[in-house]
Amino acid sequence: MSLRTRLLILVIAAMLVPASLVGLRFMQNRSSDINAALTNLAAAADEIASDLDEKIQGTAQLHYGLARARDLDTRDKAACSAFLSEVREEYPQFTGILTIDPDGSLFCDSLRTNRTLDLRDRAYFKQALVSRGVVLEPVFGRLTGLSVLQIAYPVRSEAGALKLILLASFNLRKFAEFHHKRLLAEKDILLVDAKGTVLVAPSGGGWTEPVGGSIAGSELFRFAATPDRKAFQEVTDREGRTHVWSVAARSPSTLDAGLYILVGRSKDGLVAAANRRLYEDMAILAVASLLLLAAVWILATVSVGRQVGRLAAMAKRLGRGDLGARILPPHPRGELGGLMSLLNDTAESLQQQRAAIAELNQKLSQSQKMEAMGQLTGGVAHDFNNLLTVILGNAEHLADSLAGNKELHRIAGDIATAAERGSDLTRSLLAFARKQPLRPREIDIAGRIRDMEPLLRRTLGGHIECAFALEANVWLTSVDPGQLTTALLNLVLNARDALPDGGKLTVEVRNVSLEETDVDVNGEPRPGDYVMVAVTDTGSGMTAEVASRAFEPFFTTKEVGKGTGLGLSMVYGFVRQSGGLVQMQSEPGHGSVVRLFFPRLAMPPTEDPSPQDRTVAPDGSETILVVEDDDMVRAYVVNELKTLGYRVIAAPNGPAALDLLRRPGDIHLLFTDVVMPGGMFGPELARQATGLRPELKVLFTSGYTQNPVKTPDGLGDARILTKPFRRHDLATMLRSALSAPPR
Questions:
Q1: Domain boundary among 567, 599, 631
Q2: How confident is the model at residue 606 (pLDDT cuts 50, 70, 90)?
Q3: Which of 146, 244, 318, 516 has minimal Cβ neighbours within 10 Å of its Cβ?
Q4: What pTM, to 2 d.p., does this model score?
Q5: Which contiguous run of DSSP H or E holds residue 586?
Q6: Which of 421-435, 621-635, 682-696, 719-733 has the weakest average pLDDT?
């Protein structure tokens, strides 16, 4: 839907308010007009009845005057009729004026018809015989056939004898026509006698009953004849048209005459004025709406359309991925200008986000690469340690067996030395893979580095200026002190190699709080409180490509034979394994800074004395269950234990070891590898084994593991003998485990 269409819809919606007001006004006007029209209807009926009363009273006065006229006191019929004819010309409201003899025969009349009529059957004649006042009866005249109100007056002698009956026929049709015109033909007038005979019918409005017809059984007549009737009555004809009728209040004259005067009006006519005003208001509103819609359309086309076109062009460019698109100034005021600025800001933000996403993708790729290399190096170190265990142990056997042959004894010693150097190499690999055994302690890193200051200065040499910025009251951390020393030495040595011609190196320690925006070398945010150790040099620095690979194992820019490429990788693995993170900044010609962050210690750890520090016997005679998946290592360990005097049972995996434990016989200690195939590692085996034999002691061995090993409840801290190990280390750890107090 276009903006212009939306604007038009808004205008139309806005016009609903005045339209609603017009409608409300129409309803109010309609209701008030109906009430006023109904009131006017009743007033018109009463006014007609009042006028008829006046006409009756006037006729009575005329009768009183005529009764004393000498021209009527004669038996000359022609003279009498001529006199009455002259009187009627002065009173055209009468169809005729005549006299009736006491015997009911017509004597003279103003019409001069010379007809002979017997009027004894007329009700007004019968009443006049016994009455002394005016008698009324609505009928159809026998001479004219018109509906008239007969106004009869008995003329009596002084003695009271009836001389004649003076009769005036009041023309009801002319009377109704007069009032119909007076009412501007807006209302219908209906005259009905007491029997329901229609004397005067409405001239229009769809009235169907003719003059002389009867409405005696109709709803309208029942309404007119009911004494305690309601004020108005709606009547619907056969064609579905509805009229509202009102009956004049009954005066003594109309009551005596038995005459009902009804005034009605079509229901549609009641609200015609209100409808007319509604049409006028709607026409004005329609014209105003059309003018407003035209103005909005022109404004939208001329002013808004051009600006919307600029917005649409910008949106299309953004949709095609052109985040460099911008809407150039000038921008219009108001919402469209704000929208243009917002769109420009959005494009700028999207451009920045695209750059940030690209950077995060690069960091994620680096993190995944480092993690994959860690898995690889950990696996290699594990298998290598198994081999070194066999090599180192057999070298010890050879050295003992060849003690009398100096040359062969030296060769056996060289083999053992080479195996130990290989062990150092695997420790570096495990440090990078974050799988080296750590012995963390609660330490003050600043104090530890302060103690190392002389060693670090000697390592750097006199041509490098060394500065230490150690903050007081740094937070405590849980870190392996030996590994911290090694990591710091590696960083200092790397900095020394970057300063062949001298320079400055700074070691800084302080408390820091990291936010979500502070990330490590892999782009991972790790907010929290840390103790930061930073080593900054003013050396040659590194390019971005070299810096991105600096922590990879075996990556080095040094000459062959001058570095293994494991220094920074070991630092990285040690810090990550300690729960911290590493950051590095470097730029060619501006030096480098490596920051190590160690988590603040929430609760000081509790330490047990190291098993290796206890004084133990070198050998024994207990039964030991050896569980090792590597055949050569298992054979070597079994042979060494037997040499130390122990009784040995061996199993290649956890399930086989459990089968042996379920059999009868004494087994004092379980000596198991931590990582084994088949789905059951050493800790799980220890849990099930101690469940079968609660008194069983446990000693773990591993080529690599993440410290601490999760041991079953009740075993306490795990005792781990790291591969490769010498016979003395094996004997010492065994005695320490066997000598431990019962659980």
A1: 599
A2: very low
A3: 516
A4: 0.41
A5: strand 581-586
A6: 421-435
Q: For the chain, how many structural domains are there in total?
A: 4
Q: Which of 250, 270, 290 is the last residue of a domain?
A: 270
Number of neighbours of residue 456 by Cβ within 10 angstroms: 21
Give me the domain span that covers residue 734. Answer: 623-739
Helix ranges, 469-564 (H): 481-497, 544-548
Residue linked to tokens 């495990």: 430
- Read off the tokens for 69: 């006229």
**What confidence tens digit (pLDDT) does each residue in 166-184 have?**
999 999 999 999 998 888 7
Residue whose token pair is 């990078």: 432
The CATH number linked to 628 is: 3.40.50.2300
State the CATH number of the domain containing residue 50.
Answer: 3.30.450.20
Structure tokens at 693: 């034999």
Locate 97 and state its tokens.
């004026």
Do residues 179 and 120 both lie within one domain?
A: no
Q: What percent of the chain has pLDDT over 90?
A: 29
Q: For 95, what's the count of Cα atoms within 13 Å in the CB-facing half-sphere?
A: 21
Of 539 and 278, the one with more pLDDT: 539
Residue 75 CB contacts under 8 Å (≥ 6 apart), including other chains: none
CA distance 98 to 683: 142
How far is CA 525 from each of CA 363, 366, 521, 688, rounded to the nearest angstrom? 11, 15, 10, 39
pLDDT digits (tens, 9 = 90+) for 429-459: 555 444 455 668 888 999 888 888 888 888 7
Residue 657, both tokens: 């070891």
Higher pLDDT, residue 319 or 581: 581
